[in-house]
């Protein structure tokens, strides 16, 4: 299967105009002087970005509870009302159908679709049904944007936040949309977005340096969440399940994975914090290797103890150990 690559970001100025236009005229969407901007975020990474960029000028409702699994979110009537009453909704179209429906029906004043700011890709992650498909070639850059918004429904991988440079694009877009919604604090939003982008650029460099010289490149994960991370840093993801972590691999797939682990010299089977580790533990036991956590950061159980940056750095440490990095 040939890997499809699309440019990560449209022109930011154009994106800001498109996103702010979702709410109608500037006057209709302007919340200046009317108190904090009321923002609804669909799940943790988008909530984190909005919180960092919005600062004290925003109040945020996260539709996915702390530590909750976002893939199969069902909305309550109260959450639908929050979307309807909000000044801004930050979501990822196609990832959570209930959120898509609520946004389409209630038409919030302003909307940020993360997949517009960082168009989604299909990856060569090896999963059941893809045979001998392998990950992207190391060092391959994204091609120019083809002008289309590739959504999860199109087959795109939703986990864009696991590439810090893609999350930086989302941060910049959130800053521009908040600036359109609340012009009185526009420069504050832009400054905080730039600061967050700088921190994400530092994180990106840490991953590049930390994974530059490793004995192995293969990572076995419990579901296909790490395609962007693998592509960015020259790794090859072998996933037990597809994009949905709740799917169950067939016995044939388990046997195939056991052989792959032996053939590649993999030392670690990675599992997640929000999904059962049962299959990963069984595979590790059957092949005589270790298990460790590689967190897709779809949700964080206790945000007082961890955030996006701390979990990403824990992921880097786990990868370096498993891959034998110098």
Structure report:
With 326 residues, the chain is α/β, with parallel strands linked by helices. Helix content is 42%, strand content 12%. The protein contains twelve helices and eight strands. The chain has helices at residues 12-21, 26-29, 44-54, 77-85, 97-106, 114-117, 164-181, 186-210, 227-233, 251-264, 278-287, 308-323, and strands at residues 37-41, 58-62, 88-91, 110-113, 218-223, 236-241, 268-271, 290-293. β5, α9 and β6 (236-241) form a beta-alpha-beta unit. It starts with 11 loop residues before the first helix and ends with a helix. The relative contact order is 0.15. Residues 1-28 and 128-150 have low confidence and may be disordered.
Mean pLDDT: 84
How many beta-strand elements?
A: 8
Rg over CA atoms, rounded to whole Å, is 20 Å
Instruction: Please identify the structural class as seen in this structure.
Output: alpha/beta
Count of DSSP H/I helices: 12
Strand order, sheet with most strands: 2-1-3-4
- Can you tell me the residue ranges where pLDDT is under 50 for at least 5 consecutive residues? 1-28, 128-150
Portion in strands: 5-15%
How does the major sheet shape up? Answer: 4 strands, parallel
Order of helices and strands: HHEHEHEHEHHHEHEHEHEH
The dominant shape is globular
Helix share, percent: 40-55%
How far the N terminus sits from the C terminus, by CA atoms, comes to 32 Å
How would you summarize what this structure contains?
This protein is an alpha/beta fold and 326 residues long.
Name a few traits of the molecule.
12% strand; single chain; 42% helix; 326 residues; four-stranded parallel β-sheet; alpha/beta
């Amino acid at each position: 299967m040939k890997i499809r690559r699309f440019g990560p970001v449209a022109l930011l100025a154009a994106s800001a105009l498109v996103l702010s236009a979702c709410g109608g005229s500037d006057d209709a969407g302007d919340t200046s002087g009317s108190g904090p901007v009321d923002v609804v975020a669909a799940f943790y990474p988008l909530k984190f970005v909005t919180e960092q960029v919005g600062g004290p000028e925003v109040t945020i409702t996260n539709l996915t509870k702390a530590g909750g699994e976002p893939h199969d979110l069902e909305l309550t009537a109260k959450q639908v009302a929050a979307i309807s009453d909000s000044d801004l909704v930050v979501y990822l179209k196609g990832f959570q159908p209930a959120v898509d429906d609520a946004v389409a029906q209630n038409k919030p004043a302003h909307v940020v679709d993360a997949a517009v700011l960082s168009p989604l890709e299909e990856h060569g992650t090896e999963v059941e049904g893809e045979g001998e498909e392998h990950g992207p070639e190391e060092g391959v850059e994204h091609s120019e944007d083809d002008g289309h918004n590739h959504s999860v429904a199109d087959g795109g991988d939703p986990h864009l936040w696991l590439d810090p440079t893609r999350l930086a694009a989302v941060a910049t877009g959130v800053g521009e949309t908040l600036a359109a919604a609340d012009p009185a604090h526009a420069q504050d939003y832009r400054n905080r977005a730039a600061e967050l982008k700088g921190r994400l650029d530092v994180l990106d460099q840490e991953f590049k340096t930390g994974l530059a010289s490793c004995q192995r490149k293969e990572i076995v994960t419990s579901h296909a969440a790490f395609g962007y991370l693998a592509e960015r840093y020259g790794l090859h993801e072998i996933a037990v399940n597809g994009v949905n972590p709740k799917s169950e691999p067939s016995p044939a797939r388990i046997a195939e994975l056991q052989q792959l682990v032996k053939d590649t010299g993999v030392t670690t089977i990675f599992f997640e914090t929000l999904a059962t580790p049962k299959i990963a533990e069984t595979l590790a036991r059957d092949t005589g290797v270790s298990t460790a956590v590689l967190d897709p950061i779809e949700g964080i159980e206790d945000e007082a103890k961890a955030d996006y940056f701390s979990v990403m750095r824990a992921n880097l440490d786990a990868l370096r150990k498993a891959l034998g990095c110098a």
